[in-house]
Amino acid sequence: MPRASYQRIADELRRRIITGELTSGERMPSRQALADEFGVGPRVAADAVQQLVAEGYAVSRTGSGTYVRPKPPLRRLTRSWYRESRGGSPFRADMAAQARSGGWESASETVPASEEVAARLAIEPGAEVMRTGYTFTADNEPVMLSTSYEPLAITRGTPVVLPEEGPYAGRGVVERMREIGQRILHANELVTARSTDVAEADRLRIGRGTAVIVIKRTYYTQDHPVETADIIVPSDRYELAYTIPVAPE
């Protein structure tokens, strides 16, 4: 077998973990076993395993070895109109229902709308929007990312221009917009899946390339969209539960 770099070995071990050949909690092959298999020195094999530790696929235990990181329990995130209408933070309410402490970190800035964001908000590309990036946590562990965009043509000069500052900080979008006369009637969500990029993986403390659920959500009043967001959820940690109201005949 031709000699392999530590990256090639890391790629193969990552594949074995993802496909289940190496199972959750299983001890990783020793440095010597990897060195023999791939025709490399023990140092190269050790670097490959350390790469997987850095990416979150494996965990080292002093005096014991390196193991495939156990998968966290699958939890549920609720997506429903009732969730957005009940007041306060919908995410924090979801976490409280699971006996967990929900919180988040955020940062807001004014940016020109990209073509995609402009199309979702029915505004001109380059129009100013308030972009807010969130890292949501449960018991101080990151569990979800979100980047929201709100047209400044609607919120500029109002108490809700900054989603996480002012008298309505931390409230859901529906409640915040209601305070400035924007009555949200419905939301659309487009759900897809992809692999994380490096920045997302680092923020979520998960392996690079891990599969995530991506929700592209947009809120509408009767006349126009008022907010759109990209929500990123690790697929091995959460499942999405949708509640869909049905009007009586």
From TrEMBL:
GO terms for biological process: negative regulation of DNA-templated transcription. Pfam families: GntR (PF00392), UTRA (PF07702). PROSITE patterns: HTH_GNTR (PS50949). GO terms for molecular function: DNA binding; DNA-binding transcription factor activity. Keywords: DNA-binding, Transcription, Transcription regulation. Residues 3-71 form the HTH gntR-type domain. Coiled coil: none annotated. PANTHER family: GNTR-FAMILY TRANSCRIPTIONAL REGULATOR (PTHR44846:SF17), MANNOSYL-D-GLYCERATE TRANSPORT/METABOLISM SYSTEM REPRESSOR MNGR-RELATED (PTHR44846). This is HTH gntR-type domain-containing protein. The keyword DNA-binding applies. The lineage of its organism: Bacteria, Bacillati, Actinomycetota, Actinomycetes, Streptosporangiales. It comes from the Bacteria.
